[in-house]
Amino acid sequence: MPSLEYAREHTCAVGGRRELSAPRLRADTPERAGLDPVELGHLAGAVHALTSSDRPWAAGAVAVAGRGPVIAVAEAAGWAVRYASYDPETDSGAELPAAARVPATVGTPFDLASLTKLFTAVAAVQQIERGTLGMDARIGDYLPDFRAAAAHGVTVRQLLTHTSGLRPDLPLYDCPDDRAALAMLRAEAPTAEPGAHRYSDLNMILLQFVLERITGRTLDLLVQEGITRPLGMTATTFGPCPGAAATEDQRRPWAKAHRGMLRGVVHDENAWALGGVAGHAGLFSTAPDLAVFCRALLAGGSYGPARILGPDFVELLLTPPGLGFAVDQPWFMGELAGRGAAGHTGFTGTSLVLDPATDTFLILLANTVHPRRRPPDSGPRAALATHLARAVI
What we know:
alpha+beta, Beta-lactamase, 2 domains, three-stranded antiparallel β-sheet, 13 helices
């Protein structure tokens, strides 16, 4: 059961009734959030362990966790910039001199990678709420020039739930220009039977084009005007973001393009090919900003005086299988999974989980691809989420 202090923070008197409120986030003690300080101490210690070895899980990491309106953990460890380059002969990074390294702080922006998909999904559901986008409409109704997907009857719902049958990605980064990349997308047909889950960046790229077509606004403006500006998320933006944590010394053959050490420009090669603004990747943000995003969704779409979605549409967004959001995935949610927790991961080392059942949230931002990408390992993500689940009183 929630603690008495937690319950007091979540109710207000209105006309003699006790009703839920959606106050702004603030830093406070675990006890005021109804969370066990010992378990949260383990969570904070685990963040530092991710960056402390000679071959760490990530060069730098930031975690913010809380319950209700309370941020109970805000921990940073390691380095936003640690390496000058990657040496393939030694399979190690060439470390910068100590004076040239940049420590990670709670306010460090990170390349969100696929967490961008969550913002694209919210932007889409906003249009569904307004009646300008049909959930089960065929994308050919909006994008007849995307003839291959249109011919197969791909729907908006299928894009949002990764059930379109489209392949995971395309080599847009090898196209000579934007026109060639667009032609490749327009000619891409599903390669699997629609209906079965098949995670694909192409779903959110096509959804981006749908949103831009029906609104006449680019995706970066839709996210800014519909989500980040109303919520006061001033640190969340599509790149370039000069102060961001570094990512990869991006070179072939381990990467898909030859771009050198990246900092403040999008890591994902297809998002780069699309100019840095893409439905599947491209956003940069900080952990405190993402905590506001989580809080708004946990509060039914509102934060302070701002409302980005109505409660029914937040429920639509988070109801299994989720629209853009993954639901109850233990491989990165740990013991938070199982009661309707929702979130996503990003290739650069990011993750976000919000759990309506316990009113908790966890953001982990890291640069696991600095100085180069490794096989994905979500064990640390799941472990941090389990610490938070066990902290709930």
